[in-house]
Structures are given as C-alpha cells and as structure tokens.
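Exercise 4. Each item below gives a protein and its sequence. For each, produce the structure-token representation.

Item: APC family permease (Streptomyces noboritoensis).
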Amino acid sequence: MRSEELGETLLPKRLALPIFASDPLSSVAYATQEILLVLTLGGLAYLHFTPWIAAAVVALMTVVVLSYRQVVHAYPSGGGSYEVVSTNLGPSAGLVVAASLLVDYVMTVAVSVASGVDNIISALPSLAEHRVLLAIGFVAILTAMNLRGVRESGRAFAAPTYLFIGGVLIMVGTGLIRYLLGDAPVAESAAYGIMPEHGDQNLTGLALLMLVLRAFSSGCTALTGVEAISNGVPAFRKPKSKNAASTMASMGIIAVVMFVGVTTLAIIAKVHITEDSCRLTGIGGDCNGFTQKTVIAQLASSVFGGDNSIGFYFIQAATALVLILAANTAFNGFPLLSSILAQHRYLPRQLHNRGDRLAFSNGILALAIVAGALLWTYKADVTSLIHLYILGVFTSFTLSQLGMVRHWNHALRTEPDPATRRRHQTARVINTLGACVTGLVLVIVLITKFTQGAWLAVLAAIVLWVMMRGIRRHYDHTAAELAVDDPRAELVPPSRVLAVVLVSTIHKPTLRALSYARAFRPHHLEALTVSVDKSETEDLQHRWQDLDVNVPLKVLASPYREITKPVVEYVKGMRRESPRDIVAVFIPEYVVGHWWENLLHNQSALWLKSRLLFTPGVMVTSVPWQLTSAAHADHPAARAPGSVRRGEPAAGRGSDTPAGRI
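Answer:
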C-alpha cells in the first residue's frame, strides 16, 4: 500500500473494539479462575471472599477506565501512558512506563495464547502433549495476520471477539435464569474437596490478609490491556479522541458485566479448582493424570448440559479463539509504542518504519520472537507465566495518573473559563483517585507476586530501561558528531585524489574498473595486486605489460597467503604519506543471479571493504559486472514482498572480487 493510503486503514469503532480491547474483554475467561486458584490454597474455607475480591476488581476497573478516558482526550497523539508521563514527570519516568509496557505486551501475548491453548485442551485433552507447539504456532499465525495490516487483522478478529461476548452473556444469562427458577447449574468439580496447601490451617491476621491480597492481585489480570486504546488513538477515524473514548467506555462496561457474570456463576455452580490436581479429593484414580477443566469450561458444561453439548463446544471454541486473538491487543500496542520510542531515539530506528501494508512490521516481528521464546521457556504454562504478568501495567497505570494530575494542575493555572475549570477539576479528582488506587494495587502486586516470579519482570524492565537510555546516548552522540559547524570548512576539496584499482587477473570486470577509475580523473592512478602464487603473479605482470594500459601495476608480497591485511596496510601507508589526500579504492565485482552461486565464491571483497571502511580518508567503490544469471533474475516474480519499496535487488551480489583472490 502507498503511504498516501494510510487514511484508508483508520478504524471505525466496531473494528477498533476487537482490535484494542480483546485483551481486557478476554481476561474474564481466566481472571475469576486466578482468584479461585489463590483462595483454594487454604482449602474451601476462604472461597466466601470471592465476591468481595471481584467487587474490588470491578471498582478498580471502573476507576482505571474513567482515568484513561481523560488521557485519550488530553493526549490524542497516541503516546498513551508514555507520552503523559514523559511530558509531565520527565523522560526518565516516561522510560520506566515504556519499559514496563513493553514487558507487559510481551506477557500479554504469552499469557493469552497459553490460556487459549488451555481451553482447547479442556475440550480436547489428547492435545495436552502438544501444548508448546500449539502455542508457538498460534503466535506465528497472529504475526502473519498482523503483517497484513491493522484493518485486515481487525476484520479477521472482529467475529471471534463478538461471538465470545455473545456466548458468555448467553451462558451467564441462561445460568442465572436456571438459578432463579430453582435449577441452579452445578459444576463437575462441585463434589470435589480441596486440601489446604500446607495441611490443615486456619489463617488469621496477616496470613489471611496476604492470601486475600494475593487473590486480588491475581484477579487484577482483568485490567490488562485497558491502556491499549490510549496508545492507539491515531488508528481511529475522526473524531479520534471521541471515538476512542467511546470505545473505551464500551470496553469497560462489557468487561465488567462479563466478569461479574462469570464470577457470580462460578459461585453458584460451586466451581472448585486448584493449581495442583493432587490436592483435590474425591476425583478417584491417579491425580497426576487428572486434567482439570478451566472455570469457563466447567461453567459451560454445567449450564448447557454436559461436555458433549453444542453450547459447551461453542463456548470453548469462542473462548480459545478470543484468548489467542487477545494477543492482538499487544500486536497493535507494542509496535505503536516501539515506533514512538524509535522516533524519540530510544529504540532502533527500524522500529519506526512501516511495512508493505502500512503496519509496523519490525515491531510485530520483534514481539513475536520474544513472546515465542517465553512460551518455549515456560512450556506455555499459564500458572507459571501469570506471576510475571500485570506488574508492568500497574506501573504505567500509577505513573500515568500522577502525570495527568500534574497536567490538570498546569492547565488550571492558565485556564480562565469557569466551565472549563470545573471540567478540569473533575478530571483531576478522577485521576487523583486513579493514582491512589492503582498505586496501592501496584504495591500489593509487588509484595504478593515478587517472590513468585515477578522479579523477572522487574529485572527485564530495568534492563530495557538501561538499554533504551544507552540507545538514546548513542543517537545523541552520533548526531552531535555529524552536525555541521562550518559548511565552508566541510566543503574544502582534498589536495589530491589517489586512485587504486584492485586486480587479481585481467578480464572484463578489471578493465571496466580501470575505465571507471579513469573517468574520475584522479591525480594518481595505479593498479594493485597481492602475490599469493609467484607463477600466477608473473603471468599477470607479463599480460599487464602486453595490454599497455599505461597504468602502473603494484605487486604486494604476501608470504602467508593473506589478501586483506597487505592491501589495508598499503592504503594506510598512502594516507600516512599524504594526510591531506583522499585514497579512492575501486574493487571490481561480479553479480550472480542465484543465492547458491554465492556459495561457490569466497567473500574476500566483503572482508576487504569492511576493513577499508574503518580507515579515515579512504573511499571504497564497488564496480559491478552482472553475469548472465543476474540479468535473467531481474523478474518481478523473483522479488520478495517489499523489495521494490526497500530498493532491494532481485539478484544476489557475489561479494568476492573476480577470480576470488582480492
């Protein structure tokens, strides 16, 4: 797609919702389960805390959604938390948010895909041994779809997201109606008992508080991805801020309704689930071979009449799809944030470039590689991955709300209109509340999850922060070094140009290089060869005299058969003798048309050029000679996607000089 077609990729709200909100919407499939998994560490005695914890999560989500609606209106350029914090709290704090979000986006892909695979295995237990392969395969599919562009991926992902929303709402509605009619659904695990993790224990005081706080922090996974809309405002149709804010409100309402419904139904159906199957009592048989169904699977089975019902398979298919596609939130957020960071010189500039379909292809590929490696390392296990999750997102939540408070303070100092001041004051109250609440949750998450594995996420964010600071220093130093102080001084021509043509044998590429060097009209021109075989060198000298090209041939002795070092030392010697002169080195090369032909030639020219490029005052010029295979390779069908845009040749260049000796 042409750059001018970028406007055609902008999203209406109906497509923006599944693209940017699939992560928080799909989190209801495992947020309730994460609360139950923690509470059952103490057996069944503490499940009565479930509704209170769910209520706290709902209150937190409401505050966060309202807070981020302020961000969308105040900063419509798409930087989200990073831009808010960088502008109001300084670049270093902004980088903390950026590092935290990048880590969180990676975790979003890993957790969402792993959770989706879990739901597939709940319906088809025979696939359990292929868990890792399935997870990595889904990441590859998501990557390919996102490389096609935001709008195309939105169309593909919209249907599964809306099917999941509809399926969950139908399941919750059906289950609640049955409950009100006196036919409450009963989960298959309702009859199972659960042994406490450390034997009989009655938790009180601080121990009980820590259990409840840990369950709350696990339930906060329902909030992951909420900030993605604020990062993706530029992808919306106009009016961008209004449409983004409306989409965020819709996302918050739908997510809250589904989360409350699933949690209520889990309490009614008496779902019992643990991290370790061997802590379940009453299952019969070998506990090590017992596979527990996910909470959403147990609810679907109890509501729709068993594991073989159409409703069960529909919910499992929709849940698995939306959980896997929830990773698409990260596939949109990560490349956008990476692009902004690259534009600000905190990440490599390649991440700012758009691909063939106007998507940030390099960011998409980087995310896929890191997330795939994480799934492979943790064997696509949700329980292991979840402990690395949500720490980063609450770091960005807290700092962005603090940044917004400062933003409104600054706006109120300069705003004379009373009505506008009242709106700003209301927004400041919302953001202040958001900062206090999310800051408290951040402390809770840090305390309860740090030793569980969250320290790895903290370490990754710190390493990323240091790396981005280093990249910025490199770009700043490079820009300072390349800046032009006195244009007239830089435009002063060299005293002389000394041209050197590298020769290994006499044939057409060599003669073309000589002709090309002469066209530059250098002050001095000579040919240079390295003597590796005495008889071949003597033959070359005789042929050179017979050719009568009126260019002196310099022979460098190389008793150890080395090519690069003698040439580099000779050129450096020319520079030392005439520091104000420029040495121009011409290297004849031939171009082959197939990659395998490159394997038949050595790479001496590449080594030579790479060494000469580090020599000050030396210009290196490649003089190509296209072989017949290269001429026939320049066919559109032989080009890779994007090669025309990137200016890539269809053929491969042979990177050694003629005869492979220089």
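Check: The CA atoms of residues 81 and 321 lie 29 Å apart.
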